[in-house]
User: Which sequence fits this backbone?
């Protein structure tokens, strides 16, 4: 026997009948994603995503302070990650326990908002808001009853709250 798991011994020749199978198996093994981070990438990407970009008259630092103040009083987890601000309302656990059909699940839809603020060349700031679901790993791309409307509503609300905070 020979192949990727059974190398040829000294003086051994490849069997021409089994060679194609081994080459095919080796090629398939090389194409397989390495590491856990690449395992089932389709199952981890967000099901729902929205993005908007707008211009604000305030500078980047003042705008970041406005965003932090606007989202601090609400039941959101607000984090600063480098030049970005991440807002994460909802709870994955509560949403997965209660689901989409009861208010406790609907109110805890796990969504996220990433706000990126850069200086604009004409003055002021360029704000990019990216809203996405944080549902996490799932076995299928099928959506649950009412999930699209619920997640879209929550993401639109977050983007609108960020937009209104930047205009104050």
Assistant:
């Amino acid at each position: 026997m020979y192949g990727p798991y059974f190398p040829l011994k000294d003086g051994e020749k490849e069997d021409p009948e089994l060679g194609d199978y081994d080459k095919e198996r080796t090629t398939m093994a090389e194409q397989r994603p390495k590491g856990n981070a690449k395992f089932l990438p389709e199952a981890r990407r967000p099901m729902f995503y929205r993005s908007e970009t707008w211009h604000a008259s305030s500078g980047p630092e003042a705008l970041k302070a406005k965003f932090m103040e606007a989202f601090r009083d609400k039941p959101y987890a607000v984090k600063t990650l480098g030049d970005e601000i991440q807002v994460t309302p909802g709870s994955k656990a509560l949403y997965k326990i209660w689901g989409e059909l009861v208010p406790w699940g609907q109110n805890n839809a796990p969504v996220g908002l990433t706000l990126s603020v850069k200086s604009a060349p004409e003055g002021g700031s360029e704000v990019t808001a990216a809203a996405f679901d944080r549902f996490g790993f799932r076995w299928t791309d099928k959506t649950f009853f009412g999930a699209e409307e619920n997640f879209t509503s929550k993401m639109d609300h977050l983007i609108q709250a960020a937009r209104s905070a930047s205009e104050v």
